[in-house]
Amino acid sequence: EADIYQTPRYLVIGTGKKITLECSQTMGHDKMYWYQQDPGMELHLIHYSYGVNSTEKGDLSSESTVSRIRTEHFPLTLESARPSHTSQYLCASSATLGLPNTEAFFGQGTRLTVV
Amino acid sequence: QQQVKQSPQSLIVQKGGISIINCAYENTAFDYFPWYQQFPGKGPALLIAIRPDVSEKKEGRFTISFNKSAKQFSLHIMDSQPGDSATYFCAASIPAAGNKLTFGGGTRVLVKP
Q: Is the pLDDT of residue B34 over 50?
C-alpha cells in the first residue's frame, strides 16, 4: 500500500466555486505529479514538481494551479470550477533516479463533479 | 499526438487463459516501460516494469516482452484469474528527465470464471 493520500475522495461542487484538492505523501519523494483521468480513459499529466518551490505544467493544458511549499504536500487548486473540470484527479510521487526505485506511486484519486 | 498506443481496448478471457495486451511507442528516448493495474475506484498500481536493455521480464504470472527495434512491448498474463479483472495501462517515461509517465489508452480485462 502506497503512502500517498488524497482528499477528498469525492467532491460535488457548484460552478464558480474555488476548490483545492489535497495530496500528501510520507515517502520523502522529491517528485510529485498530478494526472487527470476521465472514466475508463488514459491518464494525462497536468502538473509536475521536481521538489520544493519547483512546479511545471504537464502535457495536458489545465486551468488548475499547484504549489509545492513542503516536500510532502502538493495541493491542486481550481479558482473557479466549471463543468468541464469534471474528472478524476490522481496524485503520484516518485523518488529521484539513483535510488533503488523509480516507481511512481499513486493515490486513490479525487473524483470531482462540477454541477 | 498519442505517443503510446495500446491495444486492444477491452479483452474477455476465460479463467486459466492467457491475456495479451500490446503497446507501441514513438519516442525513442523512453527508457522505462511500466505496466499499471487499476481497479474501479482505485489509483493505478505498478504491476511490472522493464528497461530496454532486456527483452523479457517475468514476475509470477505476468511477463513483459520488449522489442526495441519495433518500439513495441506487451504484457502477458498467464493462467488469468477473475481477480485479474481490471484496467491495465502501459506507460513509458524517461527517469532521468523527471520520470513523467506517458500512458497508453488502457485495456479493460474481464476474466470469466
A: yes
